[in-house]
């Protein structure tokens, strides 16, 4: 791995990351394909057309179905989904939060009940690394607990301490797996995750602790899970300065266009979020004038594209009226076109951010971009 900062404007970074699956330009948005597919009938060939640099899949979900050992037998996740660019796999740690009713946390790891069929699953740091090694992703995330943002301080401290111990086990197991001759991707990278809910002092101490471990990259997790945007930005202001400057920084599960702009300003390189795909499937579309809802009756006779001048597959060919008709008729093509537009919007915004940083005008770009976004969408 080689990470190079090309330009800086304040704390905002313009960088590039070389990986075994190609070089990516940051800041970037990772398109979320939880089960090795983007929801909304989006193919990997589509991702190439809409400027996707990194695809993100989920360790827990692929372990449950079809099974990471099956994917390994088929040559790894890149071959399985026919994608030759970087893939980041989330560790399954977020499911410790989202499947709270189906799991029990112990020092050795987490005991789950599958959300598919109820069968028992155990996942600890070693198991998460083994699953991600079977998948052969470019970047593997460390196994952690994402504690609720409003959790009691004593619970958060104990959780963070355990997450730090788990990270040491992840690093050791990843090194072992990458040393094996039959490992699919022996250049697999490991990113650690900072946790601590909304307690800045716990966050900072954890950031210092994991920074000493010389990992390939560092994420800030456990945000956008119930706290306010102001609290999120405050945590980033406090924590990011204590993460290594010469490694990529990743803000997990965030967020809106405004969240991304604020994150970039605070030194974040990587983002991911289900918003563009989820909103697209419900007819909610991002434009430079704010979000629009194609289910609104005013678009019934609107023969304009979703956004004038947009180069996405939907805007190049179809009208708002036609796509609205597809959505109303529950035709899958409607969802597909909306998801493609939203992902193209996000990926293009990241391209614009990189250009602005290259040219030393990010602050001006951010101000202008936020002006066009409805305050309710920020």
Automatic annotation (TrEMBL):
<feature type="region of interest" description="RNA binding; important for wobble base 34 recognition">
    <location>
        <begin position="277"/>
        <end position="281"/>
    </location>
</feature>
<dbReference type="InterPro" id="IPR002616">
    <property type="entry name" value="tRNA_ribo_trans-like"/>
</dbReference>
<keyword id="KW-0819">tRNA processing</keyword>
<keyword id="KW-0671">Queuosine biosynthesis</keyword>
<feature type="active site" description="Proton acceptor">
    <location>
        <position position="90"/>
    </location>
</feature>
<keyword id="KW-0862">Zinc</keyword>
<comment type="subunit">
    <text>Homodimer. Within each dimer, one monomer is responsible for RNA recognition and catalysis, while the other monomer binds to the replacement base PreQ1.</text>
</comment>
<dbReference type="GO" id="GO:0008479">
    <property type="term" value="F:tRNA-guanosine(34) queuine transglycosylase activity"/>
</dbReference>
<feature type="region of interest" description="RNA binding">
    <location>
        <begin position="253"/>
        <end position="259"/>
    </location>
</feature>
<comment type="similarity">
    <text>Belongs to the queuine tRNA-ribosyltransferase family.</text>
</comment>
<comment type="pathway">
    <text>tRNA modification; tRNA-queuosine biosynthesis.</text>
</comment>
<feature type="binding site">
    <location>
        <begin position="90"/>
        <end position="94"/>
    </location>
    <ligand>
        <name>substrate</name>
    </ligand>
</feature>
<comment type="function">
    <text>Catalyzes the base-exchange of a guanine (G) residue with the queuine precursor 7-aminomethyl-7-deazaguanine (PreQ1) at position 34 (anticodon wobble position) in tRNAs with GU(N) anticodons (tRNA-Asp, -Asn, -His and -Tyr). Catalysis occurs through a double-displacement mechanism. The nucleophile active site attacks the C1' of nucleotide 34 to detach the guanine base from the RNA, forming a covalent enzyme-RNA intermediate. The proton acceptor active site deprotonates the incoming PreQ1, allowing a nucleophilic attack on the C1' of the ribose to form the product.</text>
</comment>
<feature type="domain" description="tRNA-guanine(15) transglycosylase-like">
    <location>
        <begin position="12"/>
        <end position="370"/>
    </location>
</feature>
<feature type="binding site">
    <location>
        <position position="315"/>
    </location>
    <ligand>
        <name>Zn(2+)</name>
    </ligand>
</feature>
<feature type="active site" description="Nucleophile">
    <location>
        <position position="272"/>
    </location>
</feature>
<dbReference type="GO" id="GO:0046872">
    <property type="term" value="F:metal ion binding"/>
</dbReference>
<keyword id="KW-0479">Metal-binding</keyword>
<feature type="binding site">
    <location>
        <position position="310"/>
    </location>
    <ligand>
        <name>Zn(2+)</name>
    </ligand>
</feature>
<dbReference type="InterPro" id="IPR036511">
    <property type="entry name" value="TGT-like_sf"/>
</dbReference>
<keyword id="KW-0808">Transferase</keyword>
<keyword id="KW-0328">Glycosyltransferase</keyword>
<protein>
    <recommendedName>
        <fullName>Queuine tRNA-ribosyltransferase</fullName>
        <ecNumber>2.4.2.29</ecNumber>
    </recommendedName>
</protein>
<feature type="binding site">
    <location>
        <position position="312"/>
    </location>
    <ligand>
        <name>Zn(2+)</name>
    </ligand>
</feature>
<feature type="binding site">
    <location>
        <position position="144"/>
    </location>
    <ligand>
        <name>substrate</name>
    </ligand>
</feature>
<dbReference type="GO" id="GO:0005829">
    <property type="term" value="C:cytosol"/>
</dbReference>
<dbReference type="InterPro" id="IPR050076">
    <property type="entry name" value="ArchSynthase1/Queuine_TRR"/>
</dbReference>
<feature type="binding site">
    <location>
        <position position="195"/>
    </location>
    <ligand>
        <name>substrate</name>
    </ligand>
</feature>
<dbReference type="Pfam" id="PF01702">
    <property type="entry name" value="TGT"/>
</dbReference>
<dbReference type="GO" id="GO:0008616">
    <property type="term" value="P:tRNA queuosine(34) biosynthetic process"/>
</dbReference>
<feature type="binding site">
    <location>
        <position position="222"/>
    </location>
    <ligand>
        <name>substrate</name>
    </ligand>
</feature>
<dbReference type="InterPro" id="IPR004803">
    <property type="entry name" value="TGT"/>
</dbReference>
<feature type="binding site">
    <location>
        <position position="341"/>
    </location>
    <ligand>
        <name>Zn(2+)</name>
    </ligand>
</feature>
């Amino acid at each position: 791995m080689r990470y190079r900062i090309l330009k800086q404007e304040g704390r905002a970074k313009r960088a590039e990351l070389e990986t075994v699956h190609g070089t990516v330009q940051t800041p970037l948005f990772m398109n979320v394909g939880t089960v090795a597919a983007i929801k909304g009938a989006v193919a990997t060939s589509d991702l190439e057309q809409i400027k996707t640099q990194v695809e993100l899949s989920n360790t827990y979900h692929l372990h449950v179905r079809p099974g990471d050992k099956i994917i390994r037998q088929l040559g790894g996740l890149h071959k399985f989904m026919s994608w030759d660019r970087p893939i980041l796999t989330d560790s399954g740690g977020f499911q410790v939060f989202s499947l709270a009713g189906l799991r029990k946390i112990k020092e050795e790891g987490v005991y789950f009940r599958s959300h598919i069929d109820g069968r028992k699953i155990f996942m600890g740091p070693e198991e998460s690394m083994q699953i991600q090694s079977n998948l052969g992703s470019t970047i593997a995330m460390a196994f952690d607990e994402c504690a609720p943002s409003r959790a009691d301080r004593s619970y958060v401290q104990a959780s963070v301490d355990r997450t730090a111990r788990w990270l040491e086990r992840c690093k050791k197991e990843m090194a072992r797996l990458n040393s094996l001759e039959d490992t699919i991707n022996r250049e697999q990278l490991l990113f650690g995750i900072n946790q601590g809910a909304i307690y800045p002092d716990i966050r900072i101490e954890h950031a210092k602790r994991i920074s000493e471990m010389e990992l390939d990259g560092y994420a800030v997790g456990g945000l956008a899970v119930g706290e306010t945007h102001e609290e999120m930005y405050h945590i980033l202001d406090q924590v990011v300065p204590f993460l290594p400057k010469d490694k990529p920084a990743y803000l997990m599960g965030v967020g809106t266009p405004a969240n991304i702009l604020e994150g970039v300003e605070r030194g974040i390189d990587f983002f991911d979020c289900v918003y563009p795909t989820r909103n697209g499937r419900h007819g909610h579309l991002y434009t430079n004038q704010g979000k629009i809802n194609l289910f609104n009756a005013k678009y019934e006779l609107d023969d304009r594209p979703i956004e004038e001048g947009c180069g996405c597959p939907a805007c190049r060919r179809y009208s708002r009226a036609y796509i609205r008709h597809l959505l109303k008729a529950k035709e899958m093509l409607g969802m597909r076109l909306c998801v493609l537009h939203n992902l193209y919007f996000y990926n293009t915004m990241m391209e614009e951010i990189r250009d602005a940083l290259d040219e030393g005008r990010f602050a001006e770009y951010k101000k202008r971009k936020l002006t066009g976004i409805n305050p309710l969408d920020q």
